[in-house]
Amino acid sequence: MYQILEKKTLNANTKLMVIEAPHVARKAEPGQFIILRVTEDGERIPLTIAEYDREKGTITIIFQEVGATTMALGQLNVGDCLHDFVGPLGKASELEGLKKVAVVGGGLGCAIAYPQAKKLHEMGCEVDLIAGFRNKDIIILEDEMKAASTNLYVVTDDGSNGRKALVTEVLKELIEAGNQYDAVIAIGPMIMMKFVAETTRPYGIKTIVSMNTIMVDGTGMCGGCRLTVGGETKFACVDGPDFDGHLVDFDGSMRRSAMYKAQEKASVERHECNLMKQEVK
Amino acid sequence: MPNMNPKKMPMPEQDPNVRNKNFDEVTLGYTPEMAVEEAQRCLNCKHKPCISGCPVQVKIPEFIALVAESKFLEAAAKIKETSALPAVCGRVCPQETQCEQKCVRGIKGEPVAIGRLERFVADYAREHGEEKPVQPAANGHKCAIVGAGPAGLTCAGDLARMGYQVTVFEALHTAGGVLMYGIPEFRLPKAIVQKEIDTLKDLGVEFVLNFVVGRSETIDELFADGYEAIFVGSGAGLPTFIGVPGENANGVYSANEYLTRINLMKAYRDGADTPILHAHKVAVVGGGNVAMDAARCAKRMGAEEVYIVYRRSEKELPARLEEIHHAKEEGIIFKFLTAPLEITADENYNVTGMKCQQMELGEPDESGRRRPVPVPGSEFTLDLDCVIAAIGTSPNPLIRTTTPGLDTNRKGCIVADEEHGITSKDGVFAGGDAVTGAATVILAMGAGKRAAAAMDEYIKNKK
Ligand SMILES: Cc1cc2nc3c(=O)[nH]c(=O)nc-3n(C[C@H](O)[C@H](O)[C@H](O)COP(=O)(O)OP(=O)(O)OC[C@H]3O[C@@H](n4cnc5c(N)ncnc54)[C@H](O)[C@@H]3O)c2cc1C
Ligand SMILES: Cc1cc2nc3c(=O)[nH]c(=O)nc-3n(C[C@H](O)[C@H](O)[C@H](O)COP(=O)(O)OP(=O)(O)OC[C@H]3O[C@@H](n4cnc5c(N)ncnc54)[C@H](O)[C@@H]3O)c2cc1C
Ligand code: SF4
Ligand code: SF4
Ligand code: FES
Fold it and tell me: Which residue has the higher pLDDT, A139 or A256?
C-alpha cells in the first residue's frame, strides 16, 4: 500500500517522491491535491499532485520540510510505505481555452505550478513562466520548468542566479511590454499571491491563485480550510484550491494560517528530540 | 413478582469533577447483579408498547426476560436479531423519546432502563467470548457501500450475511463515520466501534479507506467496476456556520473540526501532532448532542469556563437528557434564550468575545416550537477565546454533483423512499443522514437495514 518507488533530493530541504497509488493516479488532474499520513498516529497533510502516471499508477509529490510531518516524510526511503494517501482532492484547474498565460511561482510554489505549466504547454498555450527563489541554492526543477514553458524567467531575491528582482516586477514589465495574457496563474506564499493579484488588478487580467490553507479532512467536512472570497465563505478543499485572486481576502487567510505557529514549533522540537534519541541508540 | 421500585437502577459513573478532566468513559455500566435487578422491573407486557418506540424493533421484553434469568449471551443474540450495533445504541440512543418513552413503567415512575440493559448485554457478550461469525456461502453478487457510518455498516453487515460480496468505500482513514470522528471517547469508547467493524471484516466485508466517492471514482464508475447495487450512506457532514461577523477569526471552529481534531486525530493525547487551541473561555453555539459533546470536550481540554449558548429555552434543548444532565454536572454553564450577534477579535484576529442578545419565546413557528424573538436593548458580551459552532450540518455536495440522475431536495438531501431507500437512480439506494439530514444513529441503522433487504430484492429480480 502506498509504497515509495522513487525519492530525490531537489535541494537542502525539498524532496520529491513517487508514490504507488493507482486509485489516485487514475483520476488526477493538474491543480488537485492529496492528503497523506506518514504513520498511524500522524497528522493529515495536504500536498499538491506534482505529476501523475496513469499507466504506472503513480503520483509524484514535491514537498518542503517545514514541520514535524514533512520532516518525518523526508526520513522515509524507497520501499517504505505511507500509512494513508487519499485523493485526488479539490477541483482541477480550469485551463481549457487559454492561449497565452503567465505562470508565476514562488519558491516551492514553482513545483506546485509546474503541472499546470506543463499541461498548458502541451495544450499549445504560450506559457511565460516566472519563477522566484530566495537564492540560487533553493532553485528547483529548472530544467523541467524550461521544458514546460515558452519563456522562463528565473529571479532571485539576492541576484545569485538569474535576475535580482521580485516576480511582480517581471510580471509588470511583461504586461507593460504588451503581452496580452488570457490569465495569470500565481502559486506560492500567500503574500506573493496577494501582490501578484494587486499587480494584475489595474489591467483587469484574470488571476488564479492556489490557496494552501490549513486543512484536516479535505472533503468539506470540517470547515477549517475556510476563507473569504468575494465576501462569501468558501472551503479551499472542495471549492478550490484555485480561486479568483482579485476576490480572495488574503489578509484574513494569512492570519488564519498563523493560528497554530506555537504548537507546530513544539511538535517539531518533540520530533527532533525523538530523532536524536534514535540516533544515539 | 416484578421489582416494583419506581426508579431505574442507577448506573455507576465517574465523579463529575474527576471525569471532566479525562477522556475515559463517563458511565461505567451495570454489574450482572444490577442488570438482573433492573430486568425484574419489566412487566413483560402482552402488547409490548416499548417495541413500537424502537426504530429497529428490538425484541425488548424477550431480551429483558433473558437478562432476568442471567442468560446474558442469549439476551445478546436476541437483540442482534434486529439490531446490528447494540453496544453503540445502548449508549447513544435518545431512549427517552424512543423505547423508554413508550414503557408502561414510565407512567407511574421511571421507565425500565432499556438502553442501559442493552448496553450491559452487548458489553457482556463482547467480553465473554461472543462467537466469531461464520462467513456465509458467497452468492456471487457484488454490492458497494459509500460511507462507513452506522447506515453503511448496518447495510454492509446484512448484505454480507445474505452472501453478497460487499465493499465499503470510506473517505476518511478510519471506518465508523460520526461514531469515530464525532462522538467523543468518553461517551462511546472507540474500541467498541472498532470491534463492530472487525466483526464485519470477519463476515467478509472489505473496507477500502481513503477513497472519496465522487473524486476517487464516481458512482457510475463503481457500477462499471461490476457492483450491481450501491448504497449511499455518506451522512450529513457539511457544517453550517453561525452567519455572524467575525466568524473566520482564529479560535472559531465548526463542531466537526473541533471534534475531529480531538477524536479522530487524537489531539487530546499528550504529544499528538494535531494542533488544537487550548482555550480558556469557550462558547458553544447550539443545543443538540453535538453541542454537548463539543462543550464537554472543551472542558476536558482544560477550559475554565464553557458556555452553551442556545436561542430557545431549556425545554426545547434537542440533546439527549443524559447528556444535558452530565454536562451540567461537569460544570458547563447554560445560557438559554441567547443568540449570538457578532464574534469580536483582536488585532491578530484571535477571538476576544461574542456579542449576544437575549431572546424571548414568541408565537409558534412551522415546527410547532415557539419562535425566539430578540428582547430590545438586551445585548451583552461574553469574554471568550474560542467559539464553536454546533448549529447543524447538511449533506456534502460531492456525491450529488458527481452523480447524474440522483435527485436531491432543496436541502441537498438525497431523495429516497423511507421503506426501501430507493432513489431516482437505478441500482442506487440511500439512507441515514444523507437522506434525512442530521438525525440519529438508530435511524441511520434502520435505514441501512431496510435498504439491504431492498437491494437483495432488486438484484434477485434483475436476474
Ligand atoms: C492544497 C494544498 C497543497 C499543498 N501542496 C504542497 C506541496 O505540494 N508541497 C509542500 O511542500 N507543501 C504543500 N502544501 C503545504 C503543506 O501541506 C504544509 O507544508 C504541511 O502541512 C506542513 O506540515 P508539517 O507538519 O510538516 O508542518 P507544520 O509544523 O504543521 O507547519 C509548518 C508550516 O506550514 C504551515 N502549515 C501547517 N499545516 C498546513 C496545512 N495543512 N496546509 C498549509 N500549510 C500548513 C504552517 O502555517 C507553518 O507555517 C500544500 C497545502 C495545501 C492546502
Ligand atoms: C458530535 C455528534 C454527536 C452525536 N450524538 C448522537 C447521539 O448521542 N445519539 C444519536 O443517536 N445520534 C447522535 N448523533 C447523530 C448520529 O451520529 C448520526 O445521525 C449518524 O452517525 C448518521 O449515520 P450515517 O451512517 O448516516 O452517517 P455518518 O455517521 O455521518 O457516516 C457517513 C460516512 O460517510 C463517509 N463519506 C461521506 N462522503 C463520502 C464520500 N463521498 N465517499 C466515501 N465516504 C464518504 C464519511 O466520512 C462518514 O464516515 C451525533 C452526531 C454528532 C456529529
Ligand atoms: S436500539 Fe435504541 S431505541 Fe431500540 S431498544 Fe435499543 S436503545 Fe431503545
Ligand atoms: S413496556 Fe416496559 S415494562 Fe412493558 S415490556 Fe416493555 S420494557 Fe417491559
Ligand atoms: S479541510 Fe475540512 S473542510 Fe476543507
Answer: A256
A/B interface, count of CB pairs below 8 Å = 108
Q: Find the ligand nearest to A219 CA.
A: 5
pLDDT in tens, A135-146: 777 777 888 888
Q: Is B401 on the interface with A (CB under 8 A)?
A: no
B243 in A contact zone (CB under 8 Å): no
What mean pLDDT value characterizes chain B? 93
CB B290 within 8 A of CB B182: yes
pTM confidence score:
0.92
CA atoms within 13 A on the CB side of A8: 8
Q: Is the CB of residue B438 less than 8 Å away from at least one CB of chain A?
A: no
Q: How close, in Å, is residue A43 to chain B by CA atoms? A: 6
* Residue B291's pLDDT band (cuts 50, 70, 90): very high
Q: Where are the beta strands (DSSP E) in A158-276?
A: 163-164, 183-187, 207-210, 226-229, 232-235, 242-244
Residues A221 and B254: their CA atoms lie apart, in Å, by 9
User: Which residues in chain A are closer than 8 Å to B265, comparing Cβ atoms?
Assistant: 43-44, 216
**CB-CB contact of B303 with B193 (8 Å):** no
Which has more pLDDT, B88 or A258?
A: B88
For residue A201, what is its C-alpha cell? 488588478
* Count of helix runs (H) and strand runs (E) in chain A: 9, 16
Kindly report the average pLDDT of chain A as a whole number. Answer: 89
Coil/strand/helix, residue B5: coil
At B458 the pLDDT is 97
CA B49 – ligand 4 centroid, Å: 7
Task: Walk me through the domains of chain B, giving residue ranges and CATH numbers.
Answer: 16-127 (1.10.1060.10), 142-237+393-462 (3.50.50.60), 241-389 (3.50.50.60)
Three-class secondary structure of residue A191 per DSSP: helix
**For A84, what's the count of Cα atoms within 13 Å in the CB-facing half-sphere?**
26
Please check whether residue A23 touches B, CB under 8 A.
Answer: yes
Q: What total number of domains does chain A contain?
A: 2
Supply φ then ψ for residue A208, to 5 degrees. -105, 130
Is residue A281 very low, low, confident or very high in pLDDT (cuts 50, 70, 90)?
A: very low
Pairwise CA distance, residues B126 & B396, whole Å: 34
Q: Is the pLDDT of residue A268 over 80?
A: no
Give me the residue from B211, B247, B348 closest to A255, CB to CB. Answer: B348
List CB contacts of B14: < 8 A, sequence separation 6 or more. Answer: B22, B24, B25, B26, B27, B28
- Nearest neighbour of B212 by CB, restricted to A44, A86, A226: A86
Overall average pLDDT of the B377-392 stretch? 96
Nearest CA to ligand 2 atom 37: B234
Q: Which amino acid is at A173?
A: E
Are A189 and A120 in a shared domain?
Answer: yes
Does A239 lie in the same domain as A160?
yes
Pick from B49, B46, B44: which is nearest to B63 by CA? B44
Q: What is the percent of chain B where pLDDT is above 90?
A: 86
